[in-house]
């Protein structure tokens, strides 16, 4: 019997392996590189590379790869063997420092948004020693950044690392002026809860839409959906259990703290949540988790769908991003302390977050904007496309009293007390939860709930880190202007003022309701419904300036991202439109015509025999009316598909305003026909086959 304690992290070149394989002096330097961001001295790179190779070869590795996250959102890798010829018929395994530190993949086919012309293919990858190398399928994986030759980021990881640095700088500056001189470094902690669907592989193979687009473009409602609420937390059946066991084991070997798994609300929907880890590592590990979930499914005759909305009519999948800040003293800075001084600290950080989220709502919305996620947000199953913050009853009461100067928190059943600092104490356990809030405080962390299930979590975290860094910098600058004995007083005033000015972003009610939408719009909160609406705001001057100030994105990098994301959005929808047209022409229309012929001949036979055929006549008319309309729409769709674009915003608007509504109309008609046609005539597995066979 294998015990997880013995093999957890065995395929990771973590501290234990480093200690074993590196000379002690080099190990200490590596720790300094990992913990304090020190640069790796060139002369020890060879030693580290060689140790890594020895360790990996013992694990059966024959190849190495730089593992990076281009702006496609998924990971990329190119494998090189360790072999180096030593004579006409001999080789030795070799891995040099410079191969560890830098790689030069042919980068011409990755999206660059104009940052690099295609004829100038060279981009390079650079080792990220703050994450961990690992061995998977006989290959040593080295997490890397991906940059163009002028140092512009072509990936998702570089801005994330920059934003963690910016947050560190701002937080330490603020904490020092507040008197917390024992804190010299902070990091973010992130725990992403991953949702996914499982479908039977044989059924999946017969659905071109699932294969090509990850979602069903057709499908009338199943006989049972999620109305009984019987899937959520339900008993996990054997095939899925065996799958989860294998997923866990693989992830544990890779040092991922896979922890909680359960059935989700929709039929065949599940969730896997890890224990949180450092922001950067959490990003890499979530990519690994998604990859392992998908790969292992095939061993069990299943397919794992990470799309945000594979099925109409039941819930889609998201990814809750739990986020907090931890200091080098080990304290969680969002954790309310017993000491009034710590209490001021957590309230100051809360105030910075509230201000940041209010002022940069659009950026947070943009950070989760994708074609897939557009199907969820605002659809009564996921947060609306409007950002608001839920703080919980107790904190709300505290904030109300801070703002009004009256002791309103007495109404709340906790042991609030006005301390010497005139700030009430916050209890640790704010268990009241509001599942409908897009951005909720859950006791000692924030949970950003708008992410789609397939999203690379780097972008939302980059934005979150940067906006909080911005507010903390402003707070620090303000407090630095007052004399030391006045800092606390000024700090409390700052907290009060901030909450007062940004109250509009706080909301505790039902975030899914239409009343909230109306109220939010009255409050002046922004609602960017689609990706095409949201992304054009990315490059507003005030955002360019803010990202520039914190050295997270240059103006060029941000424009490039905007282009890539807008074009990507159009392309996803364009491919869906093409898939839809193909399935109609090749599968659905021929099958419906056959069935119509059959019905017509039944009617004819009945007519000749002089018996009743009114119902058959009715079915034939209904089916034929819908088919006629589909054929007309299809011609229009095929015309629209032909259009080409050079301007990415135009393309995105076209997809949102022309392609999607037409596809929606076609789908509705097709679903009407599907509901009236025998199962064996319908040319693909239906929702009953897909949702209840996993
Ligand atoms: P749920 O939201 O489903 O009720 P929990 O609140 O227990 O579940 O935790 C959800 C996720 O939050 C887990 O992945 C957990 O590791 C993560 N988490 C807990 N504390 C922190 C923290 N301080 N920073 C970041 N993530 C955290
Ligand atoms: Mg959660």
Question: Can you offer a commentary on this structure?
Answer:
Residues 62-151 form the GS beta-grasp domain. Residues 620-647 form a coiled coil. The protein has 694 residues and is α+β, with helices and mostly antiparallel strands. It folds into 3 domains: 4-154, Ubiquitin-like (UB roll) (Roll), CATH 3.10.20; 163-553, 2-Layer Sandwich (Creatine Kinase, Chain A, domain 2); 567-691, Four Helix Bundle (Hemerythrin (Met), subunit A) (Up-down Bundle), CATH 1.20.120. Helices cover 47% and strands 13% of the residues. It contains 22 helices and 17 strands. It has helices at 4-7, 15-21, 24-36, 42-58, 97-101, 157-177, 201-205, 208-213, 238-253, 279-297, 340-359, 361-367, 393-404, 458-480, 487-501, 514-522, 531-534, 541-549, 555-609, 614-642, 648-675, 687-691, and strands at 63-68, 76-81, 83-87, 90-93, 102-103, 123-127, 134-136, 139-148, 186-200, 258-263, 269-274, 277-278, 302-305, 319-327, 389-390, 439-441, 446-448. The relative contact order is 0.11. Magnesium ion binds next to loops.
Radius of gyration: 28 Å
Percent helix, as a range, is 40-55%
What share of residues are in beta strands? 5-15%
CATH topology label of the largest domain: Creatine Kinase, Chain A, domain 2
Mean pLDDT metric? 92
Largest sheet: 9 strands, mixed
Distance between the termini: 28 Å
């Amino acid at each position: 019997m294998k015990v997880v304690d013995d093999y957890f992290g065995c395929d990771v070149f973590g501290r234990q392996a480093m200690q074993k394989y590196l000379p002690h002096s080099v190990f200490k330097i590596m720790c300094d590189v990992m913990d304090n961001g020190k640069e790796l001295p060139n002369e020890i790179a060879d030693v580290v590379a060689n140790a890594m190779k020895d360790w990996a070869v013992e694990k059966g590795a024959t190849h190495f790869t730089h593992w990076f996250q281009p702006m496609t959102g998924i990971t990329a890798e190119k494998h090189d063997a360790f072999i180096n010829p030593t004579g006409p018929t001999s080789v030795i395994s070799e891995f040099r420092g410079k191969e560890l530190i830098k790689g030069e993949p042919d980068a011409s086919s990755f999206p660059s948004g104009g940052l690099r012309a295609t004829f100038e293919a060279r981009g390079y990858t650079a080792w990220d020693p703050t994450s961990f190398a690992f061995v998977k399928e006989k290959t040593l994986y080295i997490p890397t950044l991906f940059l163009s030759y002028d140092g512009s980021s072509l990936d998702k990881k570089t801005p994330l690392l920059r934003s963690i640095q910016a947050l560190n700088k701002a937080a330490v500056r603020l904490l020092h002026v507040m008197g917390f001189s024992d804190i010299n470094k902070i990091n973010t902690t992130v725990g992403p809860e991953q949702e996914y669907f499982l479908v039977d592989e044989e059924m999946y193979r017969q659905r071109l839409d699932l294969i090509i687009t990850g979602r069903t473009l057709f499908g009338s409602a199943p006989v049972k959906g999620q109305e009984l609420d019987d899937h959520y937390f339900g008993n996990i059946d054997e095939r899925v259990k065996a799958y989860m066991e294998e997923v866990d084991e693989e992830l544990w070997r890779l040092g991922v703290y896979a922890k909680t798994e359960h059935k989700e609300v929709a039929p065949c929907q599940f969730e896997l949540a890890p224990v949180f880890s450092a922001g950067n590592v959490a990003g890499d590990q979530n990519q690994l988790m998604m990859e392992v979930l998908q790969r292992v499914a095939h061993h069990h005759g299943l397919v794992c769908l990470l799309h945000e909305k594979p099925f109409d009519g039941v819930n889609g999948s998201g990814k809750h991003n739990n986020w907090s800040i931890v200091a080098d003293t080990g304290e969680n800075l969002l954790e309310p302390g017993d000491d009034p001084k710590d209490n001021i600290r957590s309230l100051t950080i809360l105030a910075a977050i509230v201000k940041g989220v209010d002022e940069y709502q659009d950026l947070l919305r943009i950070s989760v904007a994708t074609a897939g996620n557009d199907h969820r947000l605002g659809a009564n199953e996921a947060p609306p496309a409007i950002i608001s913050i839920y703080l919980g009853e107790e904190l709300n009461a505290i904030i109300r009293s801070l703002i009004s100067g009256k002791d309103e928190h007495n109404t709340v059943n906790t042991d609030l007390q006005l301390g010497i600092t005139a700030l009430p104490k916050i209890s640790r356990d704010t268990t009241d939860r509001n599942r409908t809030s897009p951005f909720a405080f859950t006791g000692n962390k924030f949970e950003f709930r708008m992410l789609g299930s397939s999203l690379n979590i780097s972008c939302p975290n980059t934005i979150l880190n940067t906006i909080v860094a911005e507010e903390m910098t402003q707070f620090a600058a303000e407090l630095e202007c007052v004399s030391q004995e006045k800092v606390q007083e000024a700090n409390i005033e700052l907290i009060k003022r901030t909450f007062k000015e940004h109250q509009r972003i706080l909301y505790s009610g039902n975030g899914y309701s239409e009343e909230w939408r109306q109220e939010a719009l009255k409050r002046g909160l922004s609602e960017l419904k689609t990706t095409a609406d949201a992304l054009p705001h990315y490059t507003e001057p005030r955002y360019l300036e803010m990202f520039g100030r914190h050295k997270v994105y240059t103006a060029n990098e941000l424009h490039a991202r905007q282009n890539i994301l807008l074009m990507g959005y159009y392309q996803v929808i364009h491919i869906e439109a093409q898939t839809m047209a193909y399935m109609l022409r090749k599968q659905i229309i021929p099958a419906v015509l056959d069935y119509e012929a059959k019905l017509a001949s039944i009617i004819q036979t009945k007519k000749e025999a002089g018996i009743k055929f009114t119902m058959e006549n009715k079915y034939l008319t209904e089916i034929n009316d819908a088919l006629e309309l589909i054929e007309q729409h299809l011609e229009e769709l095929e015309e629209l598909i032909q259009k080409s674009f050079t301007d990415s915003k135009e393309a995105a608007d076209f997809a949102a305003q022309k392609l999607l509504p037409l596809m929606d109309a076609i789908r509705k008609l097709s679903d009407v026909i599907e509901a009236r046609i025998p199962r064996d005539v319908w040319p693909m597995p239906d929702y009953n086959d897909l949702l209840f066979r996993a």
